[in-house]
Amino acid sequence: PRRVWDAALVAASPIVIFQIFTNFDALATAFATGALLAWARRKPVLAGTLIGLGVAAKLYPLLLLIPLAVLAVPTGKVREVGKTAIAAVLMGLAVLVVREALPHIRRVRG
After folding, report:
1. Could you say which DSSP state residue 60 is in?
2. pLDDT for residue 40
3. How far apart are the C-alpha atoms of 61 and 50, rounded to whole Å?
4. Which of 5, 64, 79, 89 has the highest local Cβ count within 10 Å?
5. Interior/surface letters 32-63, b for 16+ CB within 10 angstroms, e for the rest
């Protein structure tokens, strides 16, 4: 990309920074965008991991698996989509376990 600094200026905008800390949509969107970038760079496990983290913030990043699954058969990427889906489920479960375990750990330590 030629104009990387333009993207950096937009990302560093005070409005964007304020929005990140007041709404979890930005976090889920960042994870979903990272997942698409990882998929484009042929890193299916990283894509699935980022989808799983995005699902921890909002549910809609999970919807990225639908077009990947639909396009998997004609493009011959069924195994890669499977890796992505498994990584997404495992990361989603890991976040869920940590989220549920933290209050109990705090209570025991408390």
Report:
1. G
2. 93
3. 9
4. 64
5. bebbbebbeeebbbbbbbbbbbbbbbbeebbe
Tokens of 9: 């200026």
Which amino acid type is present at position 105? I
* Cβ proximity of 77 and 47 under 8 Å: no
Q: Which amino acid is at 75?
A: T
Nearest alpha carbon to residue 64 among 91, 41, 84, 86 = 84
Nearest residue to 45 (alpha-carbon basis) of 94, 92, 85, 93: 85
pTM: 0.77
- Output the six-digit token pair for 46: 């990283």
Distances (CA, A) of 45 to 55, 71, 89, 101, 105: 15, 17, 11, 25, 30
pLDDT at site 1: 52
Any idea which residue has 């990882």 for tokens?
Answer: 38
**pLDDT per position as a tens digit, 10-38:** 767 777 777 767 777 888 988 999 999 99
Q: At what angle do helices 44-57 and 78-109 cross, to 10 degrees?
A: 50
